[in-house]
Amino acid sequence: MPPIRRKLPPYDPFSAKQIDAIESHADRLLDEIGVEFRGDDEALELFRSAGARVEGQRVRFEPGHAAELCSTAPATFNMYGRDGRIVPIGGDHVVLLPAYGPPFVTDLDRGRRYAAMVDFENIVKLTYSTPWLHHSGGTVCEPVDVPVNKRHLDMTFAHLRWSTKPFMGSVTSPQRAQDSIDMARIVFDGLYGSDFMDRHCVIQGNINVNSPLVWDDVMSGALKVYARANQGCVISPFIIGGAMGPVTVAGLVAQAHAEALTGIALSQLVRPGSPMVYGNFLTTMNLRSGAPTFGTAESALATYAVGQLARRLNLPLRCGAHYTASKVADGQAMQESVDAMSSGILAGTNYVIHAAGWLEGGLSFGYEKFALDLDRCAMLHKQLGGLDVGEEQLAIDAYREAGPGGNYLASAHTMRHFATANHESLLADTNSFEQWSEDGALDAEQRANRLWKKMLTEYEPPPMDEPLVRELDAFMDDRRAAMPDAWY
Predict the structure, then answer these.
(1) 223 pLDDT above the threshold of 90
(2) Which of 109, 179, 276, 334 has the most C-beta neighbours closer than 10 Å?
(3) Segments in 403-443 forming alpha helices (H)
(4) CA distance 235 to 238
């Protein structure tokens, strides 16, 4: 399936005056408080040269300056898969990705455990196998059986070898970001010419601000590597209200806006026109226990406001996902996931990380949760496609044929459309109680367990020319030999 082409308009619940107030407060934060860029002298000099006020590691901006620096980032851009597929980012497109970053995986057979490289490869293969996810994702889980300083090589190889969808590379150091780009260059320049990646985006970095109002040299360094190569980044402040920002929604959104502006501004100072996504990860916390909470009313309100801010900047938006704090794919997981994703969809998101597989506040990737989330992703394709009111859809011939009291199920119109009229869930059970009982009385999670296993069994790897595989292997061997194993 191509990415979703949204035919339903985004929801703008807040007045221009309210969004003006949030923008003005973000400018006030950048002017009075500022943002620190720690350990990155180059970033400080770039901002100083652009007219920002730099004192030590603190950077401050006159009102409107940070947004002006972002103005060269494209409103839309294309990502390219190694099979030539084009995945458009921004505008009226919605691109869905799997979960990102969990150190644990869980399933009904083996329970919760540390993620391994085989899990990483499984998730890449599952993502490649489904039509409902358009992007291979990035750190789909953290494979802890491979040394920390070398696992990015295996992860990048898995995306390049076992999928053809666009993907994310490493951001845990500038060198690892460069390794990811170099490996992508081996494949894409090998397939399409030596300057392909200088002109086309095939890989991205997921860049998180160290909220509140701090950039460290790891994140800013990785951001600069991707921007210099004309590859994309998703700039995502990661803010939990009450911990890394205020508990009030308006202040939280203003802070996220300020942080995102500074990252996008830095990318454009490094390379004007490099493709960026205006992202956010805003949620709340249980103020009694300190635990993150998801799918809450407050996070939904923040998401709507972020959507309106992104449209003012005319940038692609990342927000919303199937987030949950639940440890298993139960009723809590579905309620929180649906509410969190729905607010992002209504807010006008273009780019959804964590569309499938997220559990336990992001600590676990759930195989069954992945399959259940895919079913909802499929429904979103149909829902966002909007309503067709053409003559065929109004179905006057069905009324003429069946008439009052007639059998519409047997009409010619129904026969023409029965295969595509309704989205058919692969997991929902609509049988009678008796039939469901005879089939084993399986609940949704058990049915999802069967589905992901079937997907892996039927997976067929996409072909890749053997010389490219050998060149990737040689690159990884050289990089591994250049450094001893490090496990932290």
Answers:
(1) yes
(2) 276
(3) 412-417, 433-438
(4) 10
